[in-house]
Amino acid sequence: MSEQCIPPDKYLKLRDQYKYYIDSYNALYQLKTENEEDLNKIYKMIRTELIDSKKFIPQNIIKDILNIIPYKNRYTKSYLYLAKLIYDDYHVKEVINVNTISKFLFYKEYGIRLDNSGDFERIRSGNLDIHTEDTIYRAIMYNDLERFIIFTEREGFDKNQMLISKLYSNTRYSLLELCCYHGAVDCFKFLRTKFNSSITYECLEYSFLGGNPEIMSECLKYKEPVTYPVQKNAIISHNIDFITFLMNEYNVEIYLEYCAYYNNLEAFLVYFDRTNDINLCFVYSSMFNIPSLCKYFLSRGADINAENRDEQTALHCAALKNSKETAKFLISRHININKKDDDGHTPLHKAAIKNSRAVAQLLISHGANISVKDKHQGQTALLYAAYKNSKETAEILISHGININEKDNNRETALHKAAHENSKETAELLISHGINIDEKCEYGGTALHIAAYYNKETVELLISHGANVNEKDNEGKTPLHNAAQKMVKKQLNFLFHMVQMSMKKINMEEQLFIKQHRKMVKKQLKFLFHMVQIFMKKIKID
């Protein structure tokens, strides 16, 4: 694209035009207060600039606010407070696409479920009180060096301990990594001096979330910022100095998809200012759901059907972020509504994957092909909706006549997909609309075979709706075989639960006892004996 079409002062003009968006989201992502008066000021800005201006709907703002929590969990209460203000003032009934831990925390704080999904029972045991109780983790969060030292001097202190908690964005954290995440510079220095704790790549990555310059500088002495999480976390920080530093000093590329997912329009504009890549910026601009931004790039010569490296168009990206207004604008400009990317996904596939129901409805109303399958797996949008538990989008697809019993290349139906991921809500929807509950896949397994291997919740649902517990796959295995095969020490209760549910319906063969006895007699004889006793009393043995 000729640079004559692009004004040299484009960044300043665009920055000024979208100042309302940039400043509002910077205030959210850079939030460092628990003071109610300060929070009310932020809320007033959001309400005035984003919601009352009719630019954004309250549900999406709540989603964006709550999805920040795993990256800045010290201020969980503040984010919950802001979300609740919007929820009450705008009489919000439902918010979708919020991460599970944030949904649970909102429920725990206010007794309100934001949607019908979410297995909160699994979350309750996820180390959720580590910041409210007197723990070493709380000491790190508040950079309380005096208290931190007391914990390290206790008998049995393990300098190599790892925290596993659902409150954080990743799975495991060392003490030094937690210091980086929280910007706890005093605790960080103490660990380095006293225990010679090693700086990992994760330390560098989390330091961009914590935002402490001393910690970042120390980490950069040992690790190069070449990993994706470093770039991602710099974008999440909404600190433009961090981002330009990485670009200037380490030639780090800005990933526009991260900019859009984490509402960092300022970083997005910096990329455009540096590269003048009109077409790529146009593709990702749709994710901000600001139609005038897309219109700007088109006015400068962008191709309406421009693609990114994955052959996705702006409409694919709009579907990923449920950007309905932008999708409507793109369709009015005759973008290819059924364009496939390099995986064979159309925008409707993307809407199903992300549960972007508003965009899904819009696409279908404008003639999107609901039956098209992807390239590698032969999956329709409904199969993806079931796999991702996108119940609302699944409802839309079913209401428009999609074949509910359609199979993929492995001959799996949407119910098989739901069973894989314990998508209980979507499974229930599929059953209510008459999906074949005992349909077999390529390997002869039903949805119950899969559910028995992976989870108990969908097992309960399937059995309660009459799934055949005696059905055998191509190897002659029933669902109970799968449960027994999966069983390990921590899953004894799961198998016992399934036995209890199944015992009134199964005609159990003698051979099963023999096979399972050989496998489990050494480690689990007592449990097997108990299982046999139950079955002998309740089940007819052939």
UniProtKB/TrEMBL annotation:
Q: Report each ANK repeat as a residue range.
A: 310-342, 343-375, 377-409, 410-442, 443-474
Q: Which residues cross the membrane?
A: none
Which Pfam families is this protein grouped with? Ank_2, Ank_4, DUF3447
Q: Does the keyword Protein transport apply?
A: no
Which keywords accompany this UniProt record? ANK repeat
Question: Which ranges carry the DUF3447 domain?
Answer: 195-271
Domain of life, source organism: Eukaryota
Name assigned to this protein = DUF3447 domain-containing protein
Native organism is Trichomonas vaginalis (strain ATCC PRA-98 / G3)
